[in-house]
Design a protein that fits this description.
Strand content: 15-25%
Structural class: alpha/beta
Helix content: 25-40%
Number of domains: 1
Radius of gyration: 22 Å
Shape: elongated
Number of strands: 12
Bound molecules: zinc ion
Strand order of the largest sheet: 1-2-4-6-7-11-12-10
Number of helices: 10
Order of helices and strands: HHHEHEHEEEEHEEEEHEHHEH
Largest sheet: 8 strands, mixed
Distance between the termini: 63 Å
Length: 305
Amino acid sequence: MFIVALPTELLREIVWLYVFDTCLSDKDADTQTLLTKPPWVLIEPLTVASQRFRPLTLEAWFQTFTVRRPDWLLNLDAIPQVTTWARQVHCIDSDRALHQDDPPWNLCNFGHITKLRLDVDPIDFEYRVRFLNVPPTLHELQLCNHPELSPRVVKDIARVFPELRVLKLSQSTVWCGLCYTCNVPSFKAQPPSPLIYTNGNGLPIHYNSAWSSLKHLHTVQLTLGYELDGETSVDEENKNIWCGECDQCMSRMYPDEDFRMAWVHKKTSVLSRPPSLRRVEWRFKYLDLPVETVEAILDEAYENE
Ligand SMILES: [Zn+2]
């Protein structure tokens, strides 16, 4: 009774605190595993508590609008207010059987969102990032599970999201600028995590080039898997300015000191890169993948080619 008698603005604060405190907010947690919104089962009791609670709770819960098919972004008759409430859209596209014939994701109804999260199928090596009517307010993109973030996909990001300020990528593999392949990083010892650059360095050389048109991009966070069967390491000194190079290239090419120095110089004197880039942050998550799992993923990928 006492709570319901409070002014609406205080009720709103209480409801929003409850809704967002039930989300994970651990800054050290892997961005991929962070919930974008609390489970409905935790929120539903508030919506039936009173007429005053219901709209406040729904508005808070729909700050993030989660969709699994492109048409969910367009068919909003059930709760049309979501287009004004939503500040983040979370597209879960993790089953390629569902999205093969789907049209692009169309954000025409979401002119106020500032963030977008896209979870893709981790074994769909051909996955392309396809969005229409991206609002200029969309400043942060989180892309999870892309199995092969090649320059082609990286260029898609720059073309589709020209106003990005913050980009968070979370996947198992990364592009090696020396052999032009995507690999799970492999080290001899656990790498420092996070590995942080604040001087404009730190991106794979082709990513720099592809994102050079993103004039506002200031922060890139990459969360990767890694294995411990490599011959090379990245330590705190990081004298090779590690930017995604694979263990095989480093172990084969870095013993040639002239080559190593020239490569490091090339990486630290790149002219074509995002002009506002201030922070590049690499985080590593140990992958204890059994060999048969890796082989099964590759077999399925080749079967579908
Ligand atoms: Zn390589």
